Amino acid sequence: MKKLILFLLLVGSGSLLAQRTITDTITSQKLNEDREIKIGLPPSYDKNKSQKYPLLILFDGDFLFDAFQGALSYGYYWDDLPEVIIVGISQNKNNERETDCTVDETTGLPSEKGADFFEFIGMELIPSIQKNFRAAPFRIAAGLDTTAGFLNCYLYKDQPIFNAFISMSPELPTGMEEQIPERLAAVQQTTFYYHCTADGDMKKMRTRIQAMDAEIKKINNPKLNYVYEEFKGASHYSLVLHAIPSALYQIFSVYQPISTAEFQEKIAVLPSGYVKYLTDKYDMLEKVLGLKLQIRINDFKAIEAAILKNKAYPEFDQLSQLARKNYPKSMLADYHLAQLYEKTGDLKRAIKSYQTAFQKEEIGDLTKDMMLERADALKGAAKAKAEEPVEEVPATDAPAETPTETPVEEKKSE
């Protein structure tokens, strides 16, 4: 209930997490007109000057902007979703959304103003955002019905300008239910594709959406991350509020902190390589999403738990090196070294490492008092071990020598 209340508050007020919204106008040569856009900058944008952010382009920005911003704000609060730059394109004047998405009735390809709008996105809007804001190379496109069908046209390019597509109840142009599966089967870059419908959706659209899903499900392409949903009890318009968080959590699943399920199902069952799992997770964030992030403290704790659970104590050395790289002023690295020495029986070096950790900055639930307590406990254990009496081996009589020959007297009696 608390999370629901927080979500409603965030949807109603983008200021809670200090998001900044800018309304701007782009003079487009392709469209031969000025087009209004709304830009939502992440909460940390002004503070974190070196960070780049994924770019979310919203067709139908007039009514999708606030809905996406609210869902993202909620995800930011729990650190489940990364901060992104949101760009909403205004399409509410003079029937713009229909003319912007004009396609040829025979080929299904952008035509007339639709062709100009198609080029406006790739050749004017995105370059302008990249020039003026710190946008990462990872880009998402999202739209509803008419605009959702239109944004699929970007998949017809050999190298699509978008990495992820959120296609909500798309109104599919001619032949798209056959052509999009073919394009998705051929993609060479990691591509996220989400689309959906609802049982209250328009029947004609829903039938074609389901047909496209059936074809996409036949694809075996490791570069494709695909999710399709049909929402029960939702209408054509209400499905949007179901789809937005679902799509965002699909696309950014790799971003989320290590969960209990991920720990139990993917990490704890590994025979080794727990630290490698952690570095691979954050390398994937940088490679796929363009995000170079500091490893979370809770993720360090998850790997620590896996090492202890599986008694893979030598991996504490690697974890310590990783901690020193991410949190050089904190006690985390020396704490992990102390665990390595303690678990392998080197109490003297473990005590020294805990004492070194005491001199560093506290972090997470690691405190100076904890380091002192652990060092003192090991001193006591080391002292008790040194004072243990040495067990004496009782003396025994020397064994009788085995005769090498029969005594002379015995020989005579024979």
UniProtKB/TrEMBL annotation:
InterPro entries: AB_hydrolase_fold, Esterase-like, Mycobacterial_A85_antigen, TPR-like_helical_dom_sf. Residues 392-406 have a biased composition (Low complexity). Pfam families: Esterase (PF00756). Transmembrane segments: none annotated. Residues 381-414 are annotated as: Disordered. Keywords: Hydrolase, Signal. One of its GO terms (molecular function) is hydrolase activity. It comes from the Bacteria. Residues 1-18 form the signal peptide. This is Alpha/beta hydrolase-fold protein. It comes from Flavobacterium sedimenticola.
